[in-house]
Structure formats: structure tokens, C-alpha cells
């Protein structure tokens, strides 16, 4: 039952060329960066990735993209990656665009053994009617498009049939995991990670902290160990911020702006003391 392996390199050693990967994360949040870096070092190529987005420029899955290791991606958002756009439009990368909620449900369905499902999302658009460019040639001509999908009416509303997604391997990142593979994701890292983990035939989890079986209460488990095959401890390092946004500092109080000293009273002695007032805001 002990699923812990010694290193990320060992965890992905059998991921071969041409494999399909379901990868957790949203932007740079909850991305299994250590496992991705191990794949890059290993030299695995011709990969198909299933993820919300294919990384950002030179980060997350972007490192594999820049190295030319990905041949096809199934994603819902690709707008934050200039290299992906270049590869796609030059015929070096196939892209299957899928609505975000549909992508999530396709992964969940794959993990639950449901072959397909109907959804109203995409009805009346190229998602259902087909024609979305999947592959271009080197001259920028469309050589492959998405196929039309089956539609059906239920209770007067039209729905489109979407098929489930499974993968040879799933790569996920969790805040906490135990030796049996039970995982807990931190806040918004609980986005595509549980769904990707369910859809993989072999699921590999990198965890920031390892605990012993029983330390995670059953009701706190986000992805049960039955879905997880390997666990590797990577610590909190490697996480990055996709877009750092800070707000302007608020206007300082007139007293502080004038450079005057602020007076405070010690409630225990009743004595007054002076000191420079600070306009620095606490870290958030």
C-alpha cells in the first residue's frame, strides 16, 4: 500500500514517447511542476496533453511546449501562451479546443467509466457543428477541423454529445498526501487536479507534505488513494505566480505624510511615547 517513490524522475520513468497525459492545474495554480520538469529532463516527446491550458510562456507545461515535446493539446484556454499560438498556426501543434466546463466533465466522466454525456454547452456553435481548426500546415492553411457532433433534444432543449477523456498517465499536485495516495488540494489548486487524477490509468501525485495513513480524515480527502498509483514528495518549492498584480498604496495619513511623529499611550502605564509612524502596509 505504500505508494511513495523516491524522486520525480523515478515517478515518471515509464512515461514513454507518444503518451497521453492528463495534467492538473489552472494557469500556474496547482501545476505538477516537478513531474513536468522530470519529463523534460527525461526527453519524453510526441506527447498529447489534456489540461485546462497548456502552460504559459516557458512555465508549467510551457517548458515541454518550448522544447517541442508536445504534438497535441486538448485545452479550454490557450490565449496566454505565445509559443503555443506560433506552433499551432505553423502546423507544428494540434489543438483541440473544448469549453472549460465540458473539459472538466469529460475528465470526470472518464474517471467514472461514463463513455459520453449530453450538455447544452456549445449547441448552435462550431463546438457542435464542427469546423474548428485543429491543425494547420506550414503555410497556414487549415488541414484538419473538428468533426460535427451528435445532438439530441430533451424536454424541448437541444444538447450535444461529448465523449469522455482518459489518459495513459495523470500528473497532479497536492498540498498533502499520505502513503496510500489519499490527497488534499489547497484552495484553488482543487480545480482540475482531482478530475485529471481520476482520468489517468496511472496517476502520479507530487505532494508538498507527506503524512501517515489515517492523519487525513476521510471527509477531508479530495482525491481517494484508489485513483493514485505513485506519490513523490517535492516540498513547497517550484511554485510561481503567473501574473503579479499589486494595488497602489493608499494615501498616507496627513500626520505621517508630513513626517511628524505619532504619539501613542501605553495603556498599562498611562505614559505617552513617540515614534515615527509607518506608512508600509502589511504583506497580503
UniProtKB/TrEMBL annotation:
Pfam families: CoA_trans (PF01144). Signal peptide: none annotated. Residues 239-284 are annotated as: Disordered. The keyword Protein transport does not apply. Keywords: Transferase. Coiled coil: none annotated. The keyword Transferase applies. One of its GO terms (molecular function) is transferase activity. Residues 250-277 have a biased composition (Low complexity). PANTHER family: ACETATE COA-TRANSFERASE SUBUNIT ALPHA (PTHR13707:SF60), KETOACID-COENZYME A TRANSFERASE (PTHR13707). Belongs to the 3-oxoacid CoA-transferase subunit A family. NCBIfam families: pcaI_scoA_fam. This is CoA transferase subunit A. It comes from Geodermatophilus maliterrae.
